[in-house]
Write a structure and sequence with these properties.
Elements (H helix, E strand, L loop, with lengths): L9 E4 L5 H12 L3 E6 L2 H14 L4 E6 L5 H14 L5 E4 L17 H23 L4 E5 L23 H22 L6 E6 L14 H9 L6 H13 L10 E3 L2 E3 L8 H15 L4
Parallel strand pairs: 1-2, 1-4, 2-3, 4-5, 5-6, 6-7
Antiparallel strand pairs: 7-8
Helix pairs in contact: 1-2, 1-7, 3-4, 4-5, 4-8, 5-8
Length: 286
């Protein structure tokens, strides 16, 4: 992997206070970028800043708080960012959630859909103008090979109201990440902005430990066989910074190489249907 020169670049990372988000922040800071970490908890956010500075003493860091289960909080995050920064070179949509029981957000959305897809759909939309104004900027969406467990039927039941399976809903949300990347790529044609999605690998982090049932135990048992958070961040960092992917857009990557997504994830009509439904739910222009 060829590292990039990120001096004078500005990166915004969601879910950056732990796991692969934190390691992505560390790696991009090490390359010289100004890295804006976003997370929900101020204490964990400050601890994340201190952890990056422990290994990258001259890191240029900032912290913006946001709860991605709330669309109002996402809008505030976008506004806070634009009040402080006039450019955005990398938007790394990294935050993710997996639950084994159906939960509904204050907006009335199923929580996994809201966090994993709708929040990033809305945040990207709100920051598109600054991304375009920044030149060859990049939108990187952390998906997963779990998207292969998803099916396009979810487009007719986005809120998982017809029966809930945590793994299925998670897989559908990861399928949504790739379909969103596909739809965004089409809308970015004629600009210098690119977008790609990725599978980080099966990563040993705190992910999944917010579950209340069997997921938590499965994650704990599988831990010794998983990638480290640093290893899981490599493809995200590659897509965010490497000159090797300059101009590449609309692709799905694994292990820093183009990979083949599922047939469902290649469906342009489904990508458009998801875009229209997401725009309606988040109240943005289509």
């Amino acid at each position: 992997m060829t590292p990039g020169n990120m001096q004078e670049k500005v990166c915004l990372i969601t879910g950056a206070t732990s796991g692969i988000g934190l390691e992505s922040a560390r790696a991009l800071a090490r390359q010289g970028a100004t890295v804006v970490l976003s997370g929900r908890d101020p204490g964990r956010g400050e601890a994340a800043l201190a952890e990056v500075r422990r290994t990258v003493p001259d890191a240029k860091l900032d912290l913006l708080l946001a709860d991605l289960t709330s669309m109002a909080s996402v809008r505030k995050l976008a506004g806070d960012f634009q009040r402080k920064y006039s450019r955005l070179d990398v938007l790394l949509n990294n935050a993710g959630l997996m639950l084994d029981r159906r939960k509904v957000t204050p907006d009335g959305f199923e929580a996994t859909l809201a966090t994993n897809h709708l929040s990033h759909f809305l945040l990207t939309h709100l920051l598109l103008d600054v991304l375009k104004a920044s030149g060859a900027s990049r939108v990187v969406n952390v998906a997963s090979d779990a998207h292969r467990m998803g099916s396009l039927d979810f487009l007719d039941d986005l809120q998982a109201e017809r029966g809930y399976s945590g793994m299925k809903v998670y897989g559908n949300s990861k399928l949504a990440n790739i379909l969103f990347t596909r739809g965004l790529k089409r809308r970015l044609e004629g600009t210098k902005v690119t977008t790609n999605s990725l599978h980080p690998g099966v990563v040993r982090t705190g992910f999944g430990l917010n579950s209340e049932g069997i997921f938590k135990h499965i994650v704990k048992l599988a831990g010794p066989f998983m990638l480290s958070a640093e290893g899981g961040a490599r493809t995200s960092v590659y897509l965010a910074s490497s000159p090797e992917v300059e101009g590449v857009s609309g692709k799905y990557f694994a292990k820093s190489k183009v990979a083949k997504e599922s047939r469902a994830a290649q469906d342009d009509a489904a990508a458009e249907k998801l875009w229209q439904k997401s725009a309606e739910l988040t109240g943005v222009g289509r």
